[in-house]
Design a protein that fits this description.
Length: 298
């Protein structure tokens, strides 16, 4: 028995169905063009809800479009608070109960968590070099002289920064000297380096005694991701000084601006933080506060 005729009828029916579907879509777009343009400017879950309502009022309306729109409307994007909570919970499950050194497995797991949530490559070691630890107690540092002659009177660029005046300025230069040779050579990068710097115990890093000169250059202004694991706040900072001394009980120090943003102060201006190298092989990461991003699926 020949099947040519049924097959031909099927193809005709398919073409008719597709044409009808296209006509419905075009009519829908023409009728609601202004509304659809407006929906592009609002959050996805709000737009999806509005779209679903419009589809209900449009006849005929493909059931698949209704289902997809309704599903999207029921799954709004997570808020920043929810994302922070998810990350801090993951970190809490991985970090020890006290601020101790992390083992290899913990270092790797924490690095993966930070990389996923902040969309940077956060590493416990870089180019074969590492610090003495990646999880430690941070303490407050003073401002550093950026160039010869820099004082507290010349240090701030706006009135909003005056709140950091009380931190004072360290009497000596940082471990790598001035950030700029002179006032005329100051630029935005120099300003941000001093504004968001940390002091780390370079002298306790593996190999320091044998590779002092090499490590001294490697650590100079090296970018680090510094994270408060309790509230999820983080900054991209540079290694701008060495210290603190072991007898202080602290493992690193943070500039006044760094400490303020991290909210890493408990009356003694200290608290635990994570600090990981940032690998910029895939692109430059700007200095300063860095926010958690939505797409952080494992």
């Amino acid at each position: 028995m020949s099947r040519t005729k049924p097959a031909s009828q099927y193809q005709d029916f398919k073409k008719t169905l597709l044409k009808t579907h296209q006509e419905i879509q075009e009519a829908f777009r023409e009728k609601h063009e202004e509304t659809l343009e407006t929906l592009q400017e609002v959050p996805k879950h709000v737009a999806a809800g509005s779209l679903a309502g419009m589809l209900l009022l449009t006849s005929p309306a493909p059931s698949m479009m209704l289902t997809q729109a309704a599903a999207t409307a029921q799954a709004p994007e997570p808020t920043l608070t929810e994302i922070k909570s998810a990350m801090t919970n993951e970190l809490k499950e991985t970090l020890p109960a006290t601020v101790d050194e992390l083992n290899v497995e913990q270092k790797q797991k924490v690095g993966e968590i930070l990389s996923r949530y902040f969309h940077v490559t956060a590493l416990p070691n870089l180019e074969g070099h590492e610090l003495n630890r990646v999880y430690g107690v941070i303490g407050a540092e003073q401002h550093l002289m950026r160039y010869p002659g820099d004082t507290m009177a010349t240090h701030f660029q706006s009135s909003s920064e005056e709140k950091f005046h009380s931190s004072g300025m360290a009497p000596g230069r940082g471990a790598w000297g001035y950030f700029a040779p002179s006032l005329s050579e100051m630029n935005d990068e120099v300003v941000m380096r001093e504004k968001y710097y940390i002091a780390v115990q370079t002298f306790l890093s593996p190999g320091w005694g044998e590779q002092t000169k090499e490590l001294y250059q490697f650590f100079k202004y090296r970018k680090m991701l510094v994270v408060n694991p309790e509230n999820g706040k983080a900054v991209v900072a540079v290694i701008g000084d060495a210290g603190p001394a072991q007898w202080t009980g602290k493992h690193l120090g943070g500039s006044p601006e760094t400490m303020a943003y991290l909210e890493r102060q408990d009356g003694r201006a200290r608290g635990p933080v994570l600090y990981y190298f940032i690998d910029e092989a895939q692109g430059t990461v700007p200095l300063g506060p860095i926010i958690l991003l939505e797409n952080h699926e494992k």
